[in-house]
Amino acid sequence: MSRKVILAPLAGIADFPYRLIAKRCGAALVFTEMISAEGLLRGNTGTLRLLYFKPEERPIGVQIFGSNPETMASACRLINKLKPDLIDLNFGCPVKKVVKKNGGAALLKDLPLLKKMVSTVTRSAEVPVTVKTRSGWDQNNLVAIQVAKIAENCGASAITVHPRTQKDGFSKKADWNIIACVKEEVNIPVIGSGDVLSPQDAKKMLDHTGCDAVMIGRGSLGNPWIFSRTNHFLKYGELLPEPSLDEKIKICLKHAELSVKEKGEYVDIGTLRKHLVWYTKGMPRSKKLRQKLFVLETLDELKSAFYKYLLQIKKEHQTI
After folding, report:
1. pLDDT tens-place string over residues 64-96
2. Distance between CA atoms of 222 and 274, rounded to whole angstroms?
3. What residues are annotated to the active site?
4. What gap in Å lies between CA 271 and CA 52, rounded to an integer?
5. Which of 151, 213, 243, 273 is most buried (CB neighbours < 10 A)?
């Protein structure tokens, strides 16, 4: 992989339009949102919808979670039919509704079960299998190195390490030293995750940990150009400026167009609002702009509101 910046499998966020925008902005690899293995086997409509991806998104990984190795393997066999580029096993999700069912980060409390799951899935998969883990359940049980060795020994092709525990959530600073320790202990590629909010952060993580690639999640929200800027910074050592206001709005509207095309206008304008919050963060008079955007119901109204906003901002600058 010549580029080293990857989009994280953001639950409730990384749908097709978001992934495609990230890909066009330079993400080397994207993932589906986290998918329940049990939901797949039950044929849950919402779960099946999360599997949807298009050829232009490749390379793409499908991330699944569950608590039963055989269920995970059966889900894997279903996913094989879609021929993704890889299947990723989630052992890092800290959300209560997931860990209560012994999924996600809960597996970090039961390494024998985790081992059986990786082994069973790698035997069932027709594509490479990767693993995403947190550093442990809590600070008294840091198991990232053990998980990485299990993953490698059971046939996984790479591991992503998010160096916070389940108990940490996202509240503490990510301990990149854990990524470095994992990298020293295994031969498979190690992907670092956590607190990468800028091109400089990505470079620091790569230099500090020796990891093979960097995964960006929250740092990409309303900021998909972080991928192109980071790729450029890593290759040339030059920090490109952020896109202009016009360019940011153009990307935001392209995201909206893709979303409306896929999901329908009246269904999806509401779900776009969280993205509008992120895209408009830091823009001049963003609070007033969002108040206008949030009452709109069509894509044309959204475009018109942004164009009027741009004209007003430019007019104000001309009079200064």
Report:
1. 999 999 999 999 999 999 999 999 999 988 988
2. 9
3. 93
4. 18
5. 151
